[in-house]
Inverse folding.
């Protein structure tokens, strides 16, 4: 419990302090330090949970599922903090932002981390909603940090779309509460996930159906499912790159996490149901997932802005995960969990390199980024290897998860492998046709090497490589616990 | 009809209020001037507070009084005041955000209400009559709020639509489920408050970047042919 | 004891391949590392795999281990049987020889802007990947190794990345590799859904029902065919091979394509239960198409390495024809003939690995010295690079299927297999197989013409450009490598009986059907079915050829004295009395292929462009005449271009939904909500 | 016994090689009769060869080593081909060295070096000749193989002497497959040995020649070897036609009587065949080069039809 307290408390304190701390250098260091403490605490917490089962049960509840996301969140937050130090310093030197905005940036960064951890660790679906709304509020000013017309527009769209979406999720939660209040005597416990899960079978199916639709649309907006995705590329491309990294790496995951939690309830309630299809939730998720996967892949071909490119690739991968969770079954679920991990690691690493690359070239438009390998090998190779990894090539973990997903699909829905195959091919070509000219080729005169910090990239890619070559025993057991949690059946 | 008459007076009052709230939603759709929209929204807030108080009195949940108070202060007074103030500062208080085809809009809106009712019907097996109708109405409120968001062009009126949508949700929470747990209520209220503040901030940003608050002018970021 | 030895050898060969790639990482700082560490380690790895192959094929050793990596419930299974051993041997030979060639070849990159580290690193990774592919014994390890092989070779194709053309080629290559890999994965997925887990042992016992079996066959054909270069999936080959460094092209064309063939053989003969004769027909059709298509394009291309790439397509076609024969016979209960077909296929795999690598190494030498890719600019290289010329000639003889060289043996075996069609019941098959044989015959003859053209225009005649006139012989390392390969070509052609006996162990372990007849009559006589049916004695024919050379030598020695008194007089060649023969008057490669263009004119899509400028005072006499010929791959125009266009259109249409208007987005979410509510109510 | 067989095989090969110029001389003579010209004596080719062998060699400046070795290789390949073809006796050890497919391969080998030699000097004639030769060869070779396939399927073997034996064994039988195969073989032979209507050995008219264009630069003994190889090739085709389709009288055992009969009979067959060829050549005019593919396509189709007719009509069990 103490560890949990630290995990939650430190980001909050950090946010408050950094809101006042004016010195850029100290602030960025403090930012790193706070996140580091968060990582420690979350790892301790993870070890506790793995050793002695779920803890909490009242307002907070930590089981294998969310503790691994908590650890992941803390880790990515930490590495991104490391990256944001040189990045933001360079922005400051370039005069794109002032110290005031830098304060805002650091405060929002930690605030965002806090909301993420809160959303993950809470047991109360209402609080979870509050936290996710809070995540939007914390990041909306980051999107418009540069105050360019585009960034303001992006912020507005982000705000309204996510706000509306999350409001729908709130309505869904209310309906959930309505259904629960019939089954659970004590009204105050009626939103606790543990309670709901225990009484899942008694929840009124018709209400749960409607509730899930609202929650699907609501949290789906945050996951970035087509056609609710429109805020995502704008927000990613206009904000500062570290924020894009955490948005892609964390926010989407957490939203998906919420969706999966709800799906578990709905499945429980609809099981053995005649009015609705008992697998309603799964089918909805599969549909949305497949749609997002294909459409995002097609979008990749038309991109001009490097950050938009990779945000669409995020949509594509979230679609794949949603599809996999909807597919259900141990193999698919295990694959989806693995994919969640490796995707957020790889994608945040990519955004780190993308940030450096766009600073080297002084622009985000891909026509003007050329010959990175010749200009600054570390960045060029980082971007190239990262993209190879995200495109699903071994020996990186994304390949492993896609291997699992494809074989699971082959077993359950053989003919669905055809659109998957097409989607993979389209997405791959969309990525590489833009990537190759950027990394390869001779060094253009306008570009010069910068002082960069590639440590996050190395850490992330190393982890992804490790997961691809050999999934360590304890992580495998961990994922297997989660798979048992979600599907009721283990894999090992 | 007889079933309705069997209800207690309080419940009848609640349903009447629900109907009035629905009317205000329609009114919000219909209003064309910013200031009037905000005012109507304030009315909706008061009605919502009143409903909450009635429910509290009906089932005697003390914490519902608190949330009634919260609603009255936030939705009834604070938010409308903030919006008005910002609108005045931005000098758009008297602007007109007229609807293109009022007739069709009204038609669609009423169709939506019917649709929501049909969606909410199956809930009937679950609980006694009042809740079912209340759910239907709040669903209608939510939908109308979204519809308003879709058809309105001004940033301010969009915010009002957003708030109206939230009102619908609140109404459901209060009238159908006798209020959410306190902690959730507080959290939601806090979020709403922050949201309004941020909205205000972003109004000014928009105003700086494009010379109006017309959201249709915000179309730089698109994937279409350039 | 020997098993543990094999285990150690396997570990050693893999680790030295990896070691070579890791050590190469320093090559940018210390270039000598590439010469003194990376390539020697690579060669060591090659020799070790060769040793393993020898142990497996001669001693019948086998190996099956699990590495504690991969998925927690599915560790990497590695297994070494005769088939794997055979292909490991091929990988070993070529790798070893390439690592002799490499050090002196890669010198030219030391001044270039390209990173030596990348070259060495990915070369080692590439080789390790290929070795792992043939060793892998479960689907996951196989896919992992397969993709590592693809990615590493992608980086090698993109190595000289400053030219946009190379980047395009690499992109196309990786894209098709990706699609092919997913197809293979799906094929394994079918097996997986019919068996307990994803190990190949489970696949072997899996009972697929006919429909799924045929589906798996189709997926495998497409997936492995995409890597092997079956028409119409071959388009990456002629793009990727020319742009890669030549020793890499040798590895890719000589070895990687064979690894794809290995995968297909493994899946077809080892996993897929009872074979069906329809599959045989499919293989025959695809193989014939590929063979004839490849050779016809090789005949009109003028870029040296493109010609070689298309000829690889042709040879892959021949291999698949042999496999088709084998499947057809096996499915019709003629096991001996089926084995014979498989032997022919494996023999041709070996041959093609040898002579195609040789030719690519030659091409590398030629291009390095003459700085020309285009046949039209070469000529007269034989007198400037005599040794390279000799080895290239041997390569051409082998690939043109001329006795007594190795290419002929496999073609002869294929014909012998085809001629036993009378053993089949089905009249259709009896009629089809001879026709395929006819196509094969045509292919062989065209290949001979193609390589006469290549050799004649590049090494004979007079130089057509300044660089070529200045060309000199290459360094010793490169020559030694070429010499080894040329020697192996001659050897495998000279002793077919022994090679067949060697391959016999592979087919026996795979199909449990010995072939005693072929080698019964000693090393001198190859008698596939029986001496009365057909017999071939390569050594004696070689003897005859040698005697001809000896005769020439004797004449030369005998005339030495008289030559002293009156030396051989050299004159200008016959010029019709106009005088002044210039190199531009020679027959060009395009001109050489002209009759074929006339005959098979409907095969290609040729863009001929003639610009002639008439003489002012004599309007009938052209003063300046220019003839340009462009060849476009029809498959590209018919299949790939439309698909590409379709994707772009689709993406354009889809992009319309991102209008940029917030209210539209809200409307999407609104409508989604309504639709979903309507769906569930 | 083995040794004797080997010796006799070598002797037969020597006879074969020696008799080749005579056969072409005979054809020339018949042609002269038909065109009522005075014909050269039958030993004229031998005189030419002797003259050429005694002449000194002239080389072009641009000629490489390959140019000088090519004649020996071409001649050698043709001689090996001659060695494996049964002339008057069957069951000889040399016949087992190579079967019919290898025979085609050997012709291919010779053609390969011939064409390279043509390209070596770097004149436009050489190139033109080589290109045309390879075209003709590339189309003739499959046709030839088809003929062999047809025969091989009939006889169940590609071994020439086995094939001939089975022909003898079946006696006089009219098989469509063999008929078509014979016609195809005649056409292929004409094309391969550069006779009218595909090529004209008599002319040096620059634009029509194929074979002559390739050896244009050769002089002295090298030219002699090339010429001789060409004559030998013609002879081989003649013997193939005679012995494969009209094998009666060929010696199955190595005793003097049967060998004599076989020799005499073969001479008669060749004389008739030569006469037929001569008649055909003087009746037909040389065709345009680009008609040659059609000519060979006909041969190919005939052979294919022959084989298919065997597969469908004759082998049905």
């Amino acid at each position: 419990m103490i560890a949990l307290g630290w995990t939650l408390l430190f980001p909050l304190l950090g946010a408050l302090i950094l809101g006042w701390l004016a010195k850029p250098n100290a602030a960025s260091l403090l930012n790193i330090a706070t996140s580091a403490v968060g990582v420690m605490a979350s790892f301790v917490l993870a070890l506790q949970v793995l050793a002695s089962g779920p803890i909490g049960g009242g307002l907070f509840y930590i089981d294998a599922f969310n503790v691994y996301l908590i650890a992941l969140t803390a880790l990515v937050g930490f590495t991104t903090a490391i990256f944001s130090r040189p990045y933001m310093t360079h922005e400051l030197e370039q005069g794109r932002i002032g110290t005031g905005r830098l304060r805002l940036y650091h405060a929002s960064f930690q605030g965002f981390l806090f909301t993420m951890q809160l959303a993950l660790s809470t047991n109360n679906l209402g609080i979870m909603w509050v936290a996710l709304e809070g995540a939007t509020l914390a990041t909306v000013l980051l999107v418009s940090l540069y105050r360019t017309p585009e960034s303001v527009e992006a912020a507005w769209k982000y705000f309204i779309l996510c706000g509306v979406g999350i409001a729908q999720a709130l309505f869904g939660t209310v309906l959930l509460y309505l259904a629960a209040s019939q089954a659970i005597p004590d009204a105050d416990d009626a939103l606790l996930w543990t309670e709901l899960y225990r009484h899942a079978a008694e929840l009124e199916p018709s209400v749960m159906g409607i509730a899930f639709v609202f929650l699907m649309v609501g949290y789906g907006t945050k996951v970035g499912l087509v056609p609710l995705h429109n805020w995502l590329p704008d927000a990613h491309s206009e904000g500062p790159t570290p924020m894009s990294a955490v948005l892609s790496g964390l926010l989407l995951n957490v939203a998906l996490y919420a969706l999966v939690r709800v799906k578990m309830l709905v499945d429980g309630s609809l099981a053995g149901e005649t009015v609705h299809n008992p697998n309603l939730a799964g089918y909805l998720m599969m549909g949305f997932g497949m749609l997002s996967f294909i459409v995002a892949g097609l979008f990749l071909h038309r991109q001009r802005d490097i950050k938009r490119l990779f945000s669409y690739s995020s949509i594509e991968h979230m679609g794949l995960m949603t599809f996999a969770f909807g597919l259900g079954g141990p193999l698919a679920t295990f694959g989806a969990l693995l994919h969640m991990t490796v995707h957020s690691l790889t994608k945040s690493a990519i955004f780190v390199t993308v940030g450096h690359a766009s600073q080297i070239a002084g622009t985000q438009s891909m026509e003007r980024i050329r010959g990175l390998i010749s200009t600054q090998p570390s960045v060029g190779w980082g971007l190239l290897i990262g993209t190879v990894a995200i495109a699903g090539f071994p020996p990186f973990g994304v390949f492993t998860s896609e291997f699992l997903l494809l074989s699971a699909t082959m077993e359950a829905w053989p003919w669905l492998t055809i659109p998957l195959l097409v989607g993979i091919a389209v997405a791959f070509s969309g990525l590489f046709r833009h990537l190759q000219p950027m990394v390869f080729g001779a060094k253009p005169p306008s570009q010069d090497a910068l002082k960069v910090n590639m440590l996050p990239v190395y850490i992330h890619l190393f982890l992804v490589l490790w997961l691809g070559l050999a999934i360590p025993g304890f992580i495998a057991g961990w994922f297997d616990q989660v798979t048992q949690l979600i599907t009721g059946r283990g894999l090992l | 009809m007889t079933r309705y008459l069997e209800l207690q007076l309080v419940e009848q009052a609640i349903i009447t209020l629900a109907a009035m709230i629905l009317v205000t939603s329609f009114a919000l759709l219909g209003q064309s001037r910013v200031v009037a929209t905000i005012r109507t929204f304030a009315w909706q807030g008061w009605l919502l507070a009143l409903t909450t108080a009635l429910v509290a009195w009906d089932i005697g949940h003390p914490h519902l009084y608190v949330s009634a108070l919260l609603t009255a202060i936030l939705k009834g007074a604070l938010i409308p005041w903030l919006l008005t103030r910002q609108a005045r500062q931005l000098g758009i208080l008297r602007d007109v955000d007229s609807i293109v085809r009022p007739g069709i809009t009204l038609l669609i809106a009423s169709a939506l209400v019917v649709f929501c009712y049909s969606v909410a019907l199956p809930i009937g097996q679950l609980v006694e009559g009042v809740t079912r109708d209340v759910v239907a109405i709040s669903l209608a409120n939510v939908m109308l709020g979204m519809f308003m968001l879709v058809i309105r062009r001004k940033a301010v009126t969009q915010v009002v639509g957003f708030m109206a949508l939230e009102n619908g949700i609140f109404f459901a929470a209060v009238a159908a489920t006798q209020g959410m747990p306190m902690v959730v209520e507080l959290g939601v209220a806090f979020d709403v408050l922050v949201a309004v503040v941020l909205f205000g901030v972003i109004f000014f940003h928009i105003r700086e970047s494009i010379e109006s608050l017309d959201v249709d002018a915000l179309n730089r970021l698109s994937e279409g042919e350039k | 004891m020997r098993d543990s030895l094999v285990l150690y050898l396997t570990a050693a060969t893999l680790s030295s391949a990896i070691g070579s790639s890791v050590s190469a990482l320093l090559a940018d700082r210390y270039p000598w590392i590439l010469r003194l560490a990376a390539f020697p380690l690579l060669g060591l790895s090659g020799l070790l795999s060769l040793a393993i192959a020898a142990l497996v094929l001669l001693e019948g050793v086998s190996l099956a281990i699990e590495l504690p990596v991969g998925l927690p419930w599915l560790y990497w299974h590695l297994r070494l049987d005769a088939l794997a051993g055979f292909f490991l041997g091929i990988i070993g030979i070529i790798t070893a020889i390439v690592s002799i060639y490499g050090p002196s070849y890669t010198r030219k990159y030391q001044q270039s802007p390209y990173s030596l580290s990348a070259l060495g690193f990915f070369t080692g990774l590439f080789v390790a990947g290929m070795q792992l592919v043939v060793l892998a014994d479960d689907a996951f390890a196989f896919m992992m190794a397969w993709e590592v092989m693809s990615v590493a070779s992608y980086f090698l194709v993109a190595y000289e990345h400053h030219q946009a053309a190379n980047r395009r080629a690499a992109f196309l290559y990786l894209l098709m590799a990706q699609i092919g890999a997913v197809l293979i994965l799906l094929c394994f997925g079918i097996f997986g859904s019919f068996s307990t887990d994803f190990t190949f042992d489970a696949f072997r016992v899996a009972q697929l029902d006919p429909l799924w079996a045929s589906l798996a066959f189709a997926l495998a054909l497409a997936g492995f065919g995409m890597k092997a270069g079956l028409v119409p999936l071959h388009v990456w080959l002629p793009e990727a091979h020319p742009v890669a460094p030549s020793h890499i092209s040798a590895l890719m064309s000589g070895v990687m394509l064979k690894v794809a063939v290995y995968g297909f053989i493994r899946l077809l003969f080892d996993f897929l239960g009872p074979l069906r004769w329809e599959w045989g027909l499919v293989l025959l059709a695809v193989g014939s198409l590929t063979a004839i298509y490849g050779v016809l394009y090789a005949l009109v291309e003028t870029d040296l390495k493109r010609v070689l790439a298309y000829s690889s397509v042709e040879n892959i076609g021949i291999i698949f024809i042999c496999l088709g024969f084998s499947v057809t016979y096996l499915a019709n209960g003629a096991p001996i003939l089926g084995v014979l077909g498989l032997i022919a296929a494996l023999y041709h795999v070996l041959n093609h690995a040898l002579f195609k690598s040789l030719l690519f190494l030659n091409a590398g030498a030629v291009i390095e010295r003459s700085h020309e890719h285009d046949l039209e600019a070469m000529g007269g290289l034989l007198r400037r690079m005599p040794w390279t010329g000799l080895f290239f000639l041997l390569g051409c003889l082998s690939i043109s299927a001329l006795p007594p060289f190795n290419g002929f043996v496999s073609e002869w075996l294929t014909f012998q297999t085809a001629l036993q069609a009378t053993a089949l019941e089905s009249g259709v098959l009896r009629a089809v197989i001879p026709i395929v044989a006819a196509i094969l015959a045509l292919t062989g003859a065209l290949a001979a013409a193609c390589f006469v053209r290549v050799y004649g225009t590049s090494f004979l005649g007079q130089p057509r450009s300044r660089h070529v006139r200045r060309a000199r012989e290459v360094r010793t390392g490169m020559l030694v490598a070429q010499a080894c390969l040329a020697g192996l070509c001659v050897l495998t052609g000279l002793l077919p009986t022994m090679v067949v006996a060697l391959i016999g162990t592979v087919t026996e372990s795979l199909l449990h059907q010995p072939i005693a007849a072929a080698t019964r009559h000693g090393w001198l006589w190859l008698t596939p079915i029986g001496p009365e049916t057909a017999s071939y004695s390569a050594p004696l024919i070689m003897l005859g050829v040698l005697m001809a050379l000896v005769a020439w030598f004797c004449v030369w020695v005998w005339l030495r004295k008289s030559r002293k008194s009156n030396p051989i007089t050299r004159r200008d060649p016959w010029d019709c009395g106009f005088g002044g023969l210039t190199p531009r008057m020679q027959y060009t490669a395009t001109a050489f292929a002209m009759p074929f263009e006339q005959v098979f004119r409907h095969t290609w899509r040729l863009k001929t462009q003639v610009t002639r400028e008439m003489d002012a005072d004599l309007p009938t006499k052209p003063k300046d005449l220019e003839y340009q010929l462009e060849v476009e791959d029809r498959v590209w125009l018919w299949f790939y271009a439309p698909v590409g266009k379709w994707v772009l259109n689709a993406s354009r249409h889809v992009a319309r939904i991102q209008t940029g208007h917030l209210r539209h987005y809200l409307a999407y979410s609104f409508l989604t909500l309504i639709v979903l509510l309507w769906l569930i109510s | 016994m083995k040794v004797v067989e080997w010796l006799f095989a070598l002797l037969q090969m020597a006879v074969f090689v020696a008799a080749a110029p005579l056969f072409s001389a005979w054809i020339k003579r018949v042609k002269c009769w038909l065109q009522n010209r005075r014909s050269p004596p039958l030993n004229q080719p031998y005189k030419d060869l002797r003259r050429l062998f005694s002449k000194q060699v002239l080389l072009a400046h641009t000629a490489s080593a390959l140019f000088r070795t090519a004649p020996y290789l071409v001649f050698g390949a043709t001689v090996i081909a001659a060695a494996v073809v049964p002339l008057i006796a069957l069951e000889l050890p040399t016949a087992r060295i190579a079967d019919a497919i290898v025979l085609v391969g050997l012709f291919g080998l010779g053609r390969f070096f011939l064409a390279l030699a043509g390209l070596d000097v770097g004149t436009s004639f050489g190139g033109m000749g080589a290109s045309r030769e390879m075209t003709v060869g590339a189309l003739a070779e499959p046709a030839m193989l088809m003929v062999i396939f047809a025969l091989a399927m009939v006889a169940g073997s590609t071994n020439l002497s086995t094939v001939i034996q089975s022909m003898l064994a079946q006696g006089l039988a009219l098989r469509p497959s063999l008929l078509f195969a014979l016609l195809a073989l005649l056409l292929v032979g004409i094309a391969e040995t550069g006779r009218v209507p595909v090529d004209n050995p008599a002319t040096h008219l620059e634009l029509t020649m194929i074979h002559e264009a390739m050896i244009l630069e050769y002089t002295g003994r090298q030219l002699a070897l090339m010429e001789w190889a060409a004559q030998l090739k013609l002879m081989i085709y003649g013997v193939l036609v005679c012995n494969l389709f009209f094998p009666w009288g060929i010696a199955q055992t190595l005793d003097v009587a049967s060998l004599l009969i076989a020799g005499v009979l073969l001479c008669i067959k060749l004389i008739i065949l030569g006469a037929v060829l001569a008649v055909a050549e003087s009746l037909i005019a040389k065709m345009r080069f680009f008609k040659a593919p059609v000519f060979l396509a006909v041969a190919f189709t005939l052979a294919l039809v022959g084989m298919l007719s065997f597969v469908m009509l004759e082998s049905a069990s």
